[in-house]
């Protein structure tokens, strides 16, 4: 039951057309298990902030505009930039 609930919450932002960034789904930018877990954690603790903080992080990294061309290090850099942004906005 907990896994189903987690999957339902991930689907709220992961492949939703409403939460696209630069015309792409969140899933196009973050595909690793660790990355999805970080996004789920953020969504649980601060619903509604995942797309915004991820978009801001995308703007801060130097990677191809097409995430299909990214290497693992590009996703890692994105997640590190996202974590820095999340930490900066916490009270």
Could you explain how this protein is built, in words?
The chain has one domain (2-89). The protein contains five helices and no strands. The model has no long low-confidence stretch (mean pLDDT 90). The protein has 91 residues and is mainly α.
Number of strand elements: 0
Shape: globular
Mean pLDDT across residues: 90
- Tell me the series of helices and strands, N- to C-terminal: HHHHH
For the sheet with most strands, the description reads: none
Helicity level: 55-70%
Low-pLDDT residue intervals, each spanning 5 or more residues: none
Structural class: mainly alpha
The N- to C-terminal Cα distance equals 32 Å
Put simply, the count of helices is 5
How many domain regions? 1
CA gyration radius, whole angstroms: 12 Å
Strand percent estimate: under 5%
Secondary structure elements and their pairing?
Blueprint: H1 2-13, H2 26-29, H3 33-45, H4 50-60, H5 72-89
Helix pairs in contact: 4-5
How do you describe this structure in short?
Helix content is 64%, strand content 0%. The chain is globular and about 40 Å long.
What are the salient characteristics of this protein?
91 residues, mainly alpha, globular
């Amino acid at each position: 039951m907990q896994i189903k609930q987690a999957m339902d919450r991930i689907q709220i932002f992961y492949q939703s057309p409403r939460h696209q960034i630069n015309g792409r789904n969140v899933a196009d930018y973050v595909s690793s298990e660790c990355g999805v877990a970080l996004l789920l954690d953020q969504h649980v603790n601060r619903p509604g902030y995942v797309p915004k903080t991820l978009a801001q992080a995308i703007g801060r990294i130097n990677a191809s505009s097409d995430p299909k061309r990214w290497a693992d290090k590009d996703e890692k850099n994105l997640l590190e930039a996202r974590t820095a942004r999340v930490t900066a906005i916490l009270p």
